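Repro:
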Amino acid sequence: MFTEHELCNICSASGRDGSLLCAVESPADVMAVEDATGYRGLYFVLMGHLSPLDGVGPEELGLEALEKRLAGEEVKELIIATNPTVEGDATAHFLADMASRHNVPASRIAHGVPLGAELEYIDGGTLSHAFFGRRSVDQ
């Protein structure tokens, strides 16, 4: 996030869980997660995504700072909330590998069919991703 301090107002607020870290691509993504969920952990804002064709690698995203956070003892889960694009997927895989090297469990937010949508109106890519990413129903 944009701030003049070490931590932004969101991450420095009392009651945040420092053991949860959510990696997002932009400050707008932080606000989207804050507005739509009850997430009470901290954020790591990438300010972009990996894109070798555009010359954006790990160095440009400041991933050495993320690596330091994961190497510490405080992060117990990395939640990866990158966009469901080719670049977002590549970034998510890179972050998951980084977390794995530090024995930090990583999860990725779900994506697929929007709530309230009808299947006949969903684009093929979204429906395919949702279909192959299905999970069992607990009864």
